[in-house]
Amino acid sequence: MRTNDNILDLLREKGAEAARKMQRGLILQPGAIGDCILTLPLAAFMKESLRLGGIDILGHTEYMGILPGRTCVDGIRSIDAMDLHRLFVKTHKFELKDRDPLINVFADYAWIATFLGEPNSHFEKNLIYTANCSHSAEVIMLSMKPPKDFSGHINDFYIQQFADQCSSPLESCTTKRDNNLIKATKADKKNGKEQLKETGIHPDKKLVVIQPGSGGKRKCWHIENFLAVTEKLISENFEVVFLLGPAEQERFDNATIKNIISVATCLTDLSLLQVLELLSCTDVFIGNDSGIAHLAAGLGVRTFTIFGPTNPDVYKPIGPDVTVFIAAKTTFTKKPSSRTQQKLLKALTT
């Protein structure tokens, strides 16, 4: 039989746990889709290790709208709808009014991790002051880029930074590479199948989606490589679809786009949600070090990525079936590489 003291201790423990689960965390992530996906392991680490009731990301909504309901992220907030630029002013000039909207931005969060701003800066001091105006909150500044001598994965760097700076004793952990970071819904798969039907894709053929772009031109494998791989795959009865976003349509000249269309089905101007829906029905994804490659890998699609100037040990996409190929940096964007093409085709068809 429990004593009264034991019962009181148990009630205190349960009360503390309930209070902990009511706390929320926030990550300020101003990057694009790839950066947002690479932040997911950190979000999961914060949520689990601190036993938070929820975690939100504040950033550009066009990149984050797909996350709630499919990932560990519970909510998103638009960085463009807030006056965060005020936090960059010199501390002695920073002012907050009564019921200041900036206070309300951070009022719901006990833990705030930010990739925006620099350590020991006016931004950090102003953010700490603002976050603590309504309640006690901990602010942790994170660097987006690891030091040059860093050899681990970027996710581990993010988690280690957070664990090192956190006031609560936390044990850093290594990100599991074989987990799906993103889970497509039934509606996603249904809509993806409808997209393919409307496009005229044969349902019985193995579908390969190729996205030949990236956020930086220097990370884009020469387009002739993708076209050569496509012709070989089609000859072996694969269905191939090219995804071209606004960046690729601007980067490629008309002749190149016509060449792509002549070789395979080409989809343009899809929203990020439509891309996710399409990938949820895809057998294989091929692309550069890009945000869409991280999306495909995170969904569990069999993913092949070609790296040139960036380090795959640091930036490799996370997923249960990811294969990386490293091509020569000097010729990566300048001319085709039949050797890397053959390696890719061999891995894909075996």
Describe this structure in words.
This protein has 350 residues and is α/β, with parallel strands linked by helices. The protein has 2 domains: 162 residues, 3-Layer(aba) Sandwich (Rossmann fold), CATH 3.40.50; 164 residues, Rossmann fold, CATH 3.40.50. 41% of the residues lie in helices and 15% in strands. The protein contains 15 helices and 11 strands. The strands form 2 sheets. Strands 8-7-6-9-10-11 form a 6-stranded parallel β-sheet, with helices on both faces. Helix 9 packs parallel to helix 15. The radius of gyration is 23 Å and the shape is elongated. The mean pLDDT is 92.
Give the structure's gist in a few sentences.
The protein has 350 residues and is of the alpha/beta class.
Termini gap: 64 Å
Which segments are poorly predicted (pLDDT under 50) over 5 or more consecutive residues?
A: none
Number of domains: 2
Shape: elongated
CATH topology of the largest domain: Rossmann fold
Count helical runs.
Answer: 15
Specify the CATH homologous superfamily of the largest domain: Glycogen Phosphorylase B
The secondary structure category is alpha/beta
- Cross-sheet strand order for the largest sheet: 8-7-6-9-10-11
Q: Regarding CATH, which class of the largest domain?
A: Alpha Beta
Main sheet overview: 6 strands, parallel
The percentage helix is 40-55%
CATH architecture descriptor text of the largest domain = 3-Layer(aba) Sandwich
Topology, number of strands: 11
The overall pLDDT, averaged over residues, is: 92
Percent in strands: 15-25%
String of helices and strands:
HEHHEHEHEHEHHEHEHHEHEHEHEH
Radius of gyration: 23 Å
